[in-house]
Every structure is written in C-alpha cells, then in structure tokens.
Amino acid sequence: MGTKFLLRTMVTAAIAAEALITALAPARAADKVTFLTSWFAQAEHGGFYQAKATGLYEKAGLDVTIKMGGPQVNGSQLLLAGETDFLMGYDIQVLKGREQNLPLVTVASSFQFDLQGIMTHDDVADLAALKGRPILIAGSSRVTFWPWLRAKYGYTDDQIRPYTFNLQPFFADKAMAQQAYPSSEPYQAEQQQEKVKFFLLADGGYPPYGSTIVTTEKMIAEKPDVVARFVKASLEGWRDYIKDPAPGNALIKADNPKMTDGQIAFAIEKLKEMKALDRGDAAKLGIGIITADRYKQIYDFLVAGGLLDPKVDWQKAFDDRFVKDLKIGVD
C-alpha cells in the first residue's frame, strides 16, 4: 500500500511540475503573415477578413496583416520581393510568371471559377449576339479573357473600346456591352435604374479559378506549416462568412469606407446565387480545392490562344497538398 501511494504521489508531483513549467514558459509567438488582396476591400475578399475578425487566424497561431491591392499595385512583384507572404492571384498571372521562371505557386482558390463576365443591355439574348458590337474592356483583359471570347464567339479586335471603369459610355450607347463583375457594375446599373443582363464567362467554359491564394516556392519549402495553417483558416473564414458576414464586413468597411452595406449585401447574394465557393469540384472536395485536371485546362486554353509558351511546366504552377484533404463545406 505504501509503495503504491508513493508512486501515485510521485506521478502527481511530476504532472504538477510539468503543468507549472508549461504555465511559466513564454507563449509561442504567432507567425507573422502578410496577405495582399487584388483590389480595394469588398465582399469578394470576405473570407479573409472574416478569418481575421473572428480569430481564426489567431487560433491557427498566425498574426495576419491584410493589405489592399489596387490598380497601381503589382502584386507578383511585391510577393517575389518578400513584401507579402501570400497574394490574391489569378491562374493566368501565375502561369505567365512561370513562363518567365518566376517561382509563383497557387495553393488554394477562393472561388471555383473566375467572376469575370460581360454586362449588356437587356435586349441581348446571349454572348454570341455581341459579335460586331462595341465592347468596353480594360487593357489587361486583352491577354486574359478577350482571346477566349474571340475564339469562342468570333469577336474581332475592332469591337474593343477602352474601359476606364466609368459606366457612362455604356449607359449612353444601347448597343454597347462591357466587362463586369457580378457584384459591381450590375449593382451600379441597378442604382441608376438601368435594365441590364450579366453573362458569366465561366458558364461558357472560361476555365480559370477565381481569387486564388498564391505564394512562392521558397515559402512552401521553408514554412509549409505556415502555408497549411493560413490556407485552412482562410477557407474556414469563407465558410463562416457566407453564414454570418457581419464580423468580416466590419473590417471590410474599416479598410474601405466607400464600400456600402447595400453593395456588400448585393455581392454576397450573388456569390451564393452562383455557388462561387462550392460549385463543381468543391461540392465534393470542399471549399478552396484546386485540381491538376483543371489546371491543365487553363494551360491548354492559354497555349491554344498563343498566350503561353507550350514548354511551360504547368504542374509547377500549383500545389494541391494544402487543400486536397481539408474538405471544408459551406453547410
């Protein structure tokens, strides 16, 4: 009896000592991470702001700073220079970077398709009906979705008019169409009581993902655990944002005071309506999924359009190890 009592006492003392050491040890510092978005804060960035607002990043041992992008911000340049750890990117940008031997890698995707589309007046039946009509597009679009539209619908370059992010030319000309995002230009048109239609390019087969998470080979090699934790917490943020966006919205409006409650609500409704988070592969494999089959489609589209050197190793442009087993659902 005495020996058993002594053993129990020793074990209890050891456990107590370990607990005391743990309590007195300095807490492990959170890993500092910077994430650069592609534009001014908006609902399309909501999952990241939600993860920040609700403590998901903190719970994952991360101290995350979200920086806004914008029209004059070269995200890839800042990523490669070490000014940011992660970037809200685009598949075409990553593959074109690979063509120049830039070590860019896509590790997850917010949306299962690019949100890019074409806004028309309400008399237009479909995208095929725009052949020969003037279309407002930005200069950067000439090397992304325009070659796809040209190949698929027979558009010609003389249809192009410069888009300066001002909707007045579109409103003034009933024959005019223009590039648009579902939550932005259609919302502005609605505010002006203009009747419009929006055609999502992905519905016609345009292959890129939307709002991807991009990092570098160096980050993946040196801090794979940080990459894994950032990706998981961000995708959990998206899951929660769709359910209750209030925390994320507060941070969005703090970063971008011009963003109104009306536009945010409109955008969230569109994301739900289009199943941007959980369409396609994500329905079974979870939010954020990227696949080799899909990346090959993007590569094939670029090569076929003469936009990418066929020698580019497209398999180095993505790494699915951080998302393939997560299976984070919207419900």
How does this model look, in words?
- This protein has 331 residues and is α/β, with parallel strands linked by helices.
- It has 14 helices and ten strands.
- The termini are far apart.
- About 2% of the residues have low confidence.
What distinguishing features does this structure have?
331 residues; alpha/beta; five-stranded mixed beta sheet; 10 strands
TL;DR?
Helix content is 42%, strand content 15%. It is built from 14 helices and ten strands.
User: Which value, in Å, is the CA radius of gyration?
Assistant: 24 Å
Helix content: 40-55%
The number of strands is 10
What does the largest sheet look like? 5 strands, mixed
Strand order of the largest sheet: 2-1-3-10-4
The secondary-structure class comes to alpha/beta
- What string gives the helices and strands in order? HEHHEHEHEEEHEHEHEEHHHHHH
Task: Quote the beta fraction.
Answer: 15-25%
The outline comes out as globular
Poorly predicted runs of 5 or more residues: 19-26
- The tally of helices reads 14
The average pLDDT value, as a whole number, equals 91
Terminal Cα span:
56 Å
Task: Write the SSE topology.
Elements: H1 2-24, E1 31-36, H2 46-53, H3 56-59, E2 62-67, H4 75-80, E3 86-89, H5 91-99, E4 104-111, E5 117-121, E6 135-137, H6 145-153, E7 160-162, H7 168-172, E8 177-180, H8 185-191, E9 196-200, E10 210-216, H9 217-222, H10 224-243, H11 246-255, H12 261-274, H13 282-285, H14 292-304
Parallel strand pairs: 1-2, 1-3, 6-7, 6-8
Antiparallel strand pairs: 3-10, 4-10, 5-8, 5-9
